[in-house]
């Protein structure tokens, strides 16, 4: 069996990636989140594929098709709840994964980091497109508000908005296009994940200490395959508890009402995983300034490999940076909380302060 695994080309590739892959011996459970993200990506693709069988991409039918899935399709309620809550779990894992990479200096692996940030951006786009598809009140108005932001781009902004809408207002062509892009983007993300893993195996994994582990590595199986399986089990128990006990905890009540262009919700807000960027957007008085700050809140991650040049990759040797990092995390959580608050004082002022701190933190990382 061992000789077959070494001689067969296909088995050899799988073996080198999942069995014999040299891995640092000091990896903690924070390195479980990458494999968990891969599992949840497949959960989202498969559940989304089965939901697409019953979804109708028409403004007159989409909301009713969701109700049909929930009430009439066998286990359709489970598919919809797993898919909706799975998106929240995917972003929770991704933010932890990015935070771990920032804390332990994984941005020093340029190709791996840049491909990972690209996956984050594509995931955000996919999640926004999927949020519009149920065509509830919040879906309709979120699509209207977010796509209108492009109109701030000089000269071509209005033309871009009309192209995305497929007309002069959010309507049936908009929903059709969003459904098409929401269906195809996950497969592009899957391709980027394969590329991400290729770069990871090319450079090797980072580790908590941040120094080379060539002289102290172990095979991926069974040391980390067992650890990953344990992580899967624990997190899936947590995920299924949410799906069974609080299935609508991440959903907005306004989205259980069919869209009405004549009635504006009292408070328009995106899903929780976009709230930090939404706070930054609304904290800038200028529309074009807010759009630039919104884009830069994520795009700034692309710049980290080029200006953070610490001699050691991990914060293990930079005690001050540990405290700065946790200040950054708390600031990010506060931005998320403020994004769910009404647009009035003192939340507007707090949003401005925490938005400024958010960007300043990246400058502080460079100084330390």
UniProtKB/TrEMBL annotation:
Keywords linked to the UniProt accession: Electron transport, Heme, Iron, Membrane, Metal-binding, Mitochondrion, Mitochondrion inner membrane, Respiratory chain, Transmembrane, Transmembrane helix, Transport, Ubiquinone
Membrane topology qualifier: Multi-pass membrane protein
Binding-site residues, a ubiquinone: 201
Binding site for heme b b566: 97, 196
Keyword Electron transport: yes
Top-rank lineage group of the source organism: Eukaryota
Keyword Metal-binding: yes
GO molecular function terms noted in the UniProt entry: metal ion binding; oxidoreductase activity; quinol-cytochrome-c reductase activity
Family stated for the protein in its record: Belongs to the cytochrome b family.
One of the record's GO cellular component terms: mitochondrial inner membrane
Gene Ontology BP term (one): mitochondrial electron transport, ubiquinol to cytochrome c
Known cofactor(s): heme b; heme
Cytochrome b/b6 C-terminal region profile domain boundaries: 210-368
A Pfam match: Cytochrom_B_C
Binding residues for heme b b562: 83, 182
Role: Component of the ubiquinol-cytochrome c reductase complex (complex III or cytochrome b-c1 complex) that is part of the mitochondrial respiratory chain. The b-c1 complex mediates electron transfer from ubiquinol to cytochrome c. Contributes to the generation of a proton gradient across the mitochondrial membrane that is then used for ATP synthesis.
Transmembrane regions listed in the UniProt entry: 29-56, 77-98, 113-133, 140-166, 178-200, 229-250, 288-308, 320-340, 346-367
PROSITE patterns named among the record's database cross-references: CYTB_CTER (PS51003), CYTB_NTER (PS51002)
Cofactor annotation remark: Binds 2 heme groups non-covalently.
InterPro entries found in the cross-reference section: Cyt_b/b6_C (IPR005798), Cyt_b/b6_C_sf (IPR036150), Cyt_b/b6_N (IPR005797), Cytb/b6-like_sf (IPR027387), Cytochrome_b (IPR030689), Cytochrome_b_C_euk/bac (IPR048260), Cytochrome_b_N_euk/bac (IPR048259), Di-haem_cyt_TM (IPR016174)
Location of this chain's protein in the cell: Mitochondrion inner membrane
Sequence ranges assigned to domain Cytochrome b/b6 N-terminal region profile in this UniProt record: 1-209
Protein name: Cytochrome b
């Amino acid at each position: 069996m061992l000789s077959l695994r070494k001689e067969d080309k296909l088995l050899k590739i799988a073996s080198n990636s999942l069995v014999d892959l040299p891995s640092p011996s000091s990896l903690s459970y924070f390195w479980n989140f990458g494999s968990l993200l891969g599992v949840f990506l497949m959960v989202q693709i498969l559940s989304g594929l089965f939901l697409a069988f019953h979804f109708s991409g028409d403004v007159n039918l989409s909301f009713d098709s969701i109700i049909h899935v929930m009430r009439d399709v066998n286990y359709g309620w489970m598919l919809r709840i797993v898919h909706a809550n799975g998106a929240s779990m995917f972003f929770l894992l991704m933010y932890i994964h990015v935070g771990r990479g920032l804390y332990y200096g994984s941005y020093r692996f340029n190709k791996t980091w840049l491909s990972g940030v690209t996956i984050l951006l594509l995931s955000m786009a996919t999640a926004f497109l999927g949020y519009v598809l149920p065509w509830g009140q919040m879906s309709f108005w979120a699509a209207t508000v977010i796509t209108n932001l492009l109109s701030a781009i000089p000269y071509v902004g209005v033309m871009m908005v009309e192209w995305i809408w497929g007309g002069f207002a959010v309507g049936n062509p908009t929903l059709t296009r969003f459904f098409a892009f929401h269906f195809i983007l996950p497969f592009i993300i899957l391709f980027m994940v394969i590329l991400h893993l290729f770069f990871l195996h090319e450079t090797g994994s980072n580790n908590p200490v941040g120094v080379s582990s060539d002289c102290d590595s172990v095979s991926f199986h069974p040391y980390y395959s067992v650890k990953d399986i344990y992580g899967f089990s624990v997190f899936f128990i947590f995920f299924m508890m949410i799906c069974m006990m609080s299935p609508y905890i991440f959903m907005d009540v306004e989205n259980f009402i069919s869209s009405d262009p004549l009635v504006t919700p009292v408070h328009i807000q995106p899903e929780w995983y976009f709230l930090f960027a939404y706070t930054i957007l609304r904290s800038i008085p200028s529309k074009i300034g807010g759009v630039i700050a919104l884009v830069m809140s994520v795009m700034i991650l692309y710049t980290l490999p080029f200006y953070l040049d610490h001699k050691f990759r991990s914060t293990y040797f930079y005690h001050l940076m540990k405290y700065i990092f946790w200040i950054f995390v708390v600031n990010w959580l506060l931005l998320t909380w403020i994004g769910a608050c009404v647009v009035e004082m003192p939340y507007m002022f707090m949003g401005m302060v925490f938005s400024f701190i958010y960007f300043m933190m990246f400058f502080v990382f460079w100084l330390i």
